[in-house]
Amino acid sequence: MKIFTERLMLRNFRLEDLPHYLAMTACESYQRFYPDEQCSAAFGTQLVHSFIDESQQWPRLRFHMAICHSQYDQWIGVASARIESSGTASIGFGLSPEHWGKGYVVEAMRELMRFMQSEYQVTRFYAETLHDNEAAIKVLSQLGLSLASVQPKQFYFKQQSWDGVTYQSDSPQ
């Protein structure tokens, strides 16, 4: 499966994406918002294999798509949508740090959300992140999601407590 934007291609994960995904999750700037075990090579390898397996399921309810430059098939990151109930999907994303600040993740997620709305009748999107993850919150706001709830001290890792936040929208912007 492939979804195109002006600059990007979202496609199913392939095994050759594994080194790129592991490199992204190995970056210190990426790791600061995740527990160490979720940044390990073993965990990342398991995730990429599950992304590949999910792309073969029918009906398909999980869309973990590789974000690539449309002209070069250069791996940029991951855009995700997971159908959780009728009309509702959780979303998430990750981008290699060298591609931050170029608008790629907003462009990719907008198109994935449009696809989910038109092909799967998703009308409500939500995302969970850490209150301190300002970059993710900025992206969610650009996607038209707004703060729905704050969960004080929801997570504990890296020897500190982290507040969780949920952002939601009824439709993509």
The proportion of residues forming helix, as a percent range, comes to: 25-40%
The shape is: globular
The averaged pLDDT comes out at: 95
In terms of per-residue confidence, which ranges show pLDDT below 50 for 5 or more consecutive residues? Answer: none
Largest sheet: 8 strands, mixed
What does this entry look like structurally?
InterPro entries: Acyl_CoA_acyltransferase (IPR016181), GNAT_dom (IPR000182), N-acetyltransferase (IPR051531). This is GNAT family N-acetyltransferase. It comes from Vibrio ulleungensis. Residues 8-163 form the N-acetyltransferase domain. Helix content is 31%, strand content 37%. The chain is globular. It has an 8-stranded mixed beta sheet, sandwiched between helices. The mean pLDDT is 95. The protein has helices at residues 18-26, 28-31, 41-54, 104-120, 134-142; strands at residues 2-4, 8-12, 62-69, 75-85, 88-95, 124-130, 146-157, 160-169. It is of the alpha+beta class. The protein has 5 helices and 8 strands, in the order ββαααβββαβαββ. It starts with a strand and ends with a strand. Helix 1 (18-26) crosses helix 3 (41-54).
